[in-house]
Specification:
mainly beta
């Protein structure tokens, strides 16, 4: 814990407060839903108000608030083989992750930062649901790889590969079904912008936020 700054812990506690206030935190949950497969610099998981320093091989529990430090990256392989990559200064919550015969459902929440998701076996079943909630929008995954985060101060989502994703706010919904298309979400009450092909330079800038050195 000696390498963790006071400001970083304050951010962690702020993230915990937000999760508690919005009903996202699973205080009793200890189910293992994934493992850290790769890490760069520092990352922490917060569970039951106790931080755990993460390293390669660390288990990820349901209800964890995962937070990364400056210049950090973390890659997590979920129980169904899905891959989740978080960029620096990102705060992410695993709310629900069920992969069994009784139902296939995943709910994640981005509190801050940038991330990339590649779906796994969960999305190979017809009744599966995989959602990522943010402050401004809900992203629904259909079996794909996509990126989400802030570019130039605004939250955006881009389809990198696969079947597609939808992005929905209180103001409307757009579907991204063409590789390389993206949408911008200005706020929670305005519809996402129509799908638009991203130039390769923009795709590269987005991917740089979750790429390991």
């Amino acid at each position: 814990m000696r390498n963790i700054s006071k400001n970083y812990l304050l951010v962690l506690m702020a993230s915990l407060g937000l999760a508690l206030a919005t009903g996202l935190y699973a205080a009793e949950a200890t189910d293992i839903v994934g493992k850290v497969s790769r890490i760069q610099k520092s990352a922490i998981a917060l569970q039951d108000a106790l931080p755990r320093v993460l390293s390669e091989g660390s288990e990820i529990q349901l209800g964890d608030i995962i937070s990364t430090g400056r210049g950090s990256r973390i890659e997590i392989v979920m129980s169904d083989g899905a891959e989740l990559t978080l960029g620096e200064r990102t705060h992410f919550v695993v709310q629900e992750y069920i992969v069994d015969q009784g139902g296939n459902n995943a709910v994640l929440r981005l509190l801050e930062g940038a991330f990339k998701v590649t779906s796994g076996k969960l999305m190979q079943t017809a009744d599966a649901s995989f959602l990522v909630h943010t402050d401004t929008a809900t992203i629904g995954i259909r079996g794909t790889t996509f990126w989400g985060g802030s570019l130039d101060g605004e939250f955006e989502v881009a389809l990198l590969d696969g079947k597609g994703v939808y992005v929905e706010t209180k103001g409307g919904r757009v579907d991204l079904s063409v590789k390389g298309d993206g949408t911008l979400i200005k706020n929670a009450t305005v519809a996402p912008t129509p799908p638009k092909a991203w130039q390769q330079k923009k795709v590269d800038r987005a991917l740089a936020t979750v790429t390991f050195n």
